[in-house]
Amino acid sequence: MTSQPEAPAGPPNIDLYTRNGFSGPIATIVRTQYAPVYTAVSGTYAPHRLDVNALSGSLVTNGSSLPVPILEGTDVSVEVSHRTEPSTVAFRNVLADELHYVLEGEGRLETDFGVLEVRPGDMVLLPRSVTYRYGAITSPLREVVIVTASEMRVDPENAPGVLNVDLHVDAPVPDPRMGPPGDYKVIIRHGGRCTTYSYDYDPVPCLAAVGAPIVRRFNMENVHGLGVEKGGLMPPRLLNDATTRTLVFHLGNRRSDRPPVHHNADYDEVIFYVAGPGHYGAVDKPGTILWTPKGLIHHGPEEDVPEGYQAFLLETRAALSLTPAGREIAAIMETGQFDFFTPGTPVNA
Ligand SMILES: [Fe+2]
């Protein structure tokens, strides 16, 4: 006669397997073991924490350089820029939309459609084929830039509760003032290559722009988490993509139970912790990025943090990997509280 192994006392653990984010089939796996814990990982397909503040000085972008990619996949990348001086050229990405998040600093963003004075917490959508430059840097500007071949739209779920589009999403204001005659350059970014056009007049200012709003901006202080009394729920989506390849959600503190252990079969998850004062699990440093590649079992911290914190989540079907600059600022992560992974150290589940 054979005997079955005895299950340890205590409630079983669950692991949610989800297809297509949370919009496809979902299955619950019931287990004795707590599945996010691992003791070692060998190879590059691993969850990582990245610290954008740690990018070396040589990678700080100057007035004519593009942001530095730290994670990239087919048609999607996560990039960082740190601007201490105004742009000496203008930029136009003709193959991808760009979503700029201002981590710190202030400046004057000049675009084909007018001007935005940007400040920390601003999320600016610069769709493809829009020319832009930083005409002034009031204080050093650090940005995270999500670059995607998808068409991104500011389309918050549960508006106006999460984000009131009428009140809190704005557009650039035309400013017809031209720079003096001189040598002006526009760098056309087309995939991994660039082509430069020169002009003897200032090509960026406009007198007016009418029609559909193209460049859009909101500040994360006007985004509010959705709370529930019991259970967890998907965080609210802020930016949509009709192809579902690249989606952006709000992930600030909210009333909810801790999210379940899960593995997301189709999406890499990239969380940007951008402001406290509250901790998000083991994360308390603004500019920290938490990357969990698709298919890895993870838990993630409690989101109900009374002190409050601000974060957002990029989900992408693209298979991301670290770039050389990304590897400089990345460390392996455990997937309970999103702390640094230390072999042999008990994981704080
Ligand atoms: Fe997740």
Rg from Cα: 22 Å
Count of the separate structural domains: 2
Structural class: mainly beta
What is the number of helices?
2
Q: What is the CATH architecture annotation of the largest domain?
A: Sandwich
Overall, the morphology is globular
Name of the CATH first level of the largest domain: Mainly Beta
Taking all residues together, what is the mean pLDDT?
A: 91
Instruction: Please trace the helix and strand order, writing H or E for each element.
Output: EEEEEEEEEEEHEEEEEEEEEEHE
Query: Number of DSSP strands?
Result: 22
The protein's oligomeric status is single chain
Q: Main traits of this protein?
A:
single chain; 349 residues; mainly beta; Jelly Rolls; 2 domains; eleven-stranded mixed beta sheet; 2 helices; 22 strands; 39% strand; globular; disordered N terminus; binds fe (ii) ion
What's this entry about, in short?
The chain is mainly beta and 349 residues long. Helices cover 3% and strands 39% of the residues. A hairpin with a 2-residue loop joins strand 7 and strand 8 (114-118).
Task: Explain what the structure shows.
- With 349 residues, the chain is mainly β.
- Helix content is 3%, strand content 39%.
- It has 2 helices and 22 strands.
- Strands 4, 5, 6, 7, 8, 9, 10, 12, 13, 14 and 21 form an 11-stranded mixed sheet that branches. The chain has an 8-stranded antiparallel sheet with strand order 11-15-16-20-18-19-3-22.
- Residues 1-5 have low confidence and may be disordered.
- Bound molecules: fe (ii) ion.
- Fe (ii) ion (FE2) binds at residues 262, 264, 269, 298, 300.
